[in-house]
User: What shape does this take?
Amino acid sequence: MTHKGIAVALGGGGVKGVSHIGVLRALTRNGFDIQAIGATSMGALVGVLFGLGHSPDEMEQVFHCLKRTGYSGRDKQSEPAFLGLRRFEKFVRGFFGKKTFHDLKTPLIVTATEIEHGREIFIREGLLVEALLASVALPGIFPARRMMDMDLVDGGVLNPVPVEAARSLVDAKTPVAAVVLTAPLGVPATMERIVLPRFIPRWLAQRIKNLRFIQAIDIFLLSQDMLNRAITTHNLDRSQPDIIIRPNVTHLYTLDTGYVTEIALEGDQAVRRALPDLLKLFPNSAEEAMQHEPRPA
Amino acid sequence: MEISLALGGGGSKGNAHIGVLRRLDQHGFKIRAIAGTSFGALVTAFYALGYPPDEIESIFSSFDQTKVYGHAPDDEPSFMGIAGAAAWLETWLGGKTFADLKIPTALTAVDLNSAKEVLLSEGDLLDAVLASAAIPGIFPARRINDMELVDGGTLDPVPVAPARALAPNLPVVAVALNVPMGEPAQSWSLPRPKYVPHSITERLSKMRYAQAIDVVLRSVDIMNRAVSEYRLEVDKPEILIRPAVSDVETLEQVSVGEIAKRGEQAFDEILPELMSLFLWHKRLARTLNSWSQR
Assistant: This one.
């Protein structure tokens, strides 16, 4: 059997990122060898877990735990932000707080955005936790991280799917697969609407959502979502990944918590849909697959 | 010397367009088609109605820039509202339609529902201008034919492709006002009401919420710039004019004449390059090219 080495770029998208677990699982099951990962935001968490050697089931467990503990919570000393990331930070520190990029079995680049000049930063050494916290720092919602004299926020701001990062880790012959979690432009907006805390009763929530002030924020967020999709489209045009895998998750809210197992399965299904094209990237293996397939009677 | 013109968005920075238009007129360039976005759409509307640049400058100067904002009763929700400027524009553009324009014109906006760029080239002119300039959340979205329209600059700050579509055989001159990548990100200072003392606004801006908003707005600024750089790469104009206006904020109160001058300066710098487009062999190449595409 031919060796099917591949590099993957895991995009950001909050809870949608859980589908990366399924993507990695299905790729491995179909005999692809994941040689390197470029990842940002929630993709970075999955990339780190995979790189540390955790199985897909263990990764799902991590997200189940996070769903129970929650992500947010503010620290007095952290940078200003609406929600903060206290619980998430505590969890990941407890889980792999001392591990560095050297401990990874699969080479990984985590990306973040340097906010002062608007540059994409590749992080490939140091503590994994630090890189991860910078990469998931959704601007304003979660605190920016100070690293190497830079203010870093979510890598998805400038490049939602870090294809170049993944490509820089492998030789020119190895194909790069981009896992994209946002809808293309021209599809109706994903309605990244305001999600209110659960303890607010529905009648009150409805009133709050009807406030003109809140509706103005809503329009702002909608246009943000479009801007993000435009940036994704342009970046993919420019970086030309060898294949694009699109899990069916574009309808989920970024900050939702959602059903871990179901979302992960969307990743498996996306790989299944893309499998014929994936195999075409390895001409020899496609022939092999043909030979193994039972001929129709 | 015929050209098609694309005027980009940028709020108060957009007064620089007036200077570019004045120089184009002075040097005898014929603007055969014009596309505008946001503040560029406003300038476009006046120019296409036949106002000479000097007159546009004096009209814009006559407007009291403290009176831009405000909410009208049936407006869509927004933070600042644009009722003041809309009422004033009504006196100039009220009742005018695209049919009144002297040259082929397109204004751009973005439909929030379909997440698509929309070209406005017919119907009520003022509606189109206000849609094109509706900075999302800050100014009210406009409803036109079932669409919920906001600032065209959200997806394409400099409308090069529309300008080219209007006049496929002519070179496109584009005026971009966005700050290039690599320069520090800008936040927005929303204008504060006059009656709020400075000491209070100072305090407010030090609050953690205000600082969090500042991070959001700076990242939006970076995203916007990234999108416009990509777009200018994909739809390359023949000539790109970038007036030096990065110090001017989008909603700042400015001297119209002073910003217009910066447009003139930027024009003077690229004039040789612009003239070279009209050497006989370049023209011939363009003509042949347009034939071969036909």
Notes: Residues 76 and 122 of chain A are 28 Å apart (CA to CA). Strands of chain A lie at 4-10, 32-40, 108-114, 119-123, 145-147, 150-154, 176-179, 243-245.
